[in-house]
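Hey,
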Amino acid sequence: MAAADTYNDIDLAWLMKLRTVVARLGEMDCGRWWNSDGQLGPQGASVLRRGLPRTHQFAQARSVCTIAGLRCAQIFDSPGIVTLWRLTDALEERLDVLWEGWLDDAASWRPFFERVARLRHTEVPAALKDFELVTDDEIAASAKIKKAGDGRSIIVPGVFDERRRAVVLLALSFAAGSQGNLVVPYARRADA
């Protein structure tokens, strides 16, 4: 992995995969957290493949991640926070820079997207572990985080330091929700 493919200790391809798996888990045919129904599944592929034969899977992922971000902002939004869908500007800019390269190499991503399309369960930690995106220690750490009193959010302890562990905890904390009941994980930004 080239240094350009990382930000601090975050492998940005890993981050793309992490977001995509969580996005799939929240679709209406899985966790029912946001209003996309199987768009990252086989149905979404069949719809977009015609117009975007080489890059349709990336279009699916970007679309559902955008939907997830908007839904999370509807449920809980506050100045000075980050969520899995809206990290720091610097991190988001690095992802945008790499996006074109990933599109050029879409064929190597195909097995990952096909596997995501087959996801049916809603257990966030199990799915992320199955995709080898999190470790047992990270799952154990996330289990100690408690929901906020409002029942609609969960704060990752500490300040968001733009490191892998903080991003992992944002993703794993979606497990605080249940079928049809989205709980939005967030962390406080360092500059807030």
